[in-house]
Amino acid sequence: MTRNPPTSPDLPCTLRFFLFILTFVLNTARRSNGTVNRPFLKVFDSKASPSNKRDVKTTDVMVDPSRNLWFRLFVPTTTTTTKLPVIIYFHGGGFVFFSANSTLFEGICRRLALKLPAIVISVNYRLAPEYRYPSAFEDGFDVLKFVDTENFEGFPSIADLGRCFLAGDSAGGNIAHHVAVMAGEHEFLKMKVIGIIGIQPFFGGEERTESETKLKNTLILSLEITDWYWKAFLPVGEDRDHPLVNVFGPRSDAVLGINFPASIVFVAGFDPLKDWQKRYCEGLKKAGKEVYMVEYPNAFHGFYCFPQLKEWSLLVEEVKDFIEKQSAAQ
Ligand SMILES: *[C@@H]1O[C@H](CO)[C@@H](O)[C@H](O)[C@H]1NC(C)=O
């Protein structure tokens, strides 16, 4: 008798239950006509106010009120003299869900700010399908320009803009990549982007990969869900070989400028997207870029939301090393 390999990780049942509920909520909020039931989602997407607790001070900074573009600034209060790197963070949620003040993502940024330590800037970019491509990329890039040129109130003097990293999970990892491409073609005054931290970045294409087929019904992500997200974010009528999705695919020119920085990419064994993420790393390598891939065999899509998992602590250590390495190379 042959046994099929497992298609889901071994998880504590409270965590499994939480994932089940989260999947149910996100699925119910997605309407079959391609729109989102925002009032329904609001009930479950709890928000955190800016605060000064647990050794991290947070403030919200407005960039452009006409499109409600703002970011949440996380400053660890445990160190006051050492210069800290700056991480510009893009939250996940399929380009469609959550915001910079969602409790789930504010927790991730708070923990990163404290543990690395680093100054974290979490971008509240506009969401699809109300705002499709390229709104999120433009919002991200405009925040970089704002941080570079405006001496805004509350920006700590210990922030080292010469050591800037773009980070994101899932759809946020896709945004980090594309914003890095835009940043590489721009002359900043002080800012220097020296690394990309891609946590299970969301890439894809028309082709179905082996991991997508094998893991097509996992919690949080299924093929039906990823297809829906792309449809919500892509320009109307476009397919998944658009270069925003299939970065090194048949329609991409795959030319990355000399200023495109080094990357670290986190991949999980039970993530249906893992084959696309591996191809992304191969594409970066072929383009002559420095890239480190870290794989956690027992992790699933979204593992980084759960600090109780050992992979979370491992990730923090890897990111720390990556930041040190790229900083030393300056
Ligand atoms: C979260 O952000 C939205 C604006 O994007 C705002 O309306 C809401 O008041 C914020 N909530 C908290 C608790 O900060």
From TrEMBL:
Its EC number is 3.1.1.1. GO terms for molecular function: carboxylesterase activity. Keywords: Hydrolase, Signal. The keyword Signal applies. The keyword Ion transport does not apply. GO terms for biological process: pollen tube growth. Residues 87-304 form the Alpha/beta hydrolase fold-3 domain. Residues 1-34 form the signal peptide. SUPFAM superfamilies: alpha/beta-Hydrolases. Belongs to the 'GDXG' lipolytic enzyme family. This is Putative carboxylesterase.
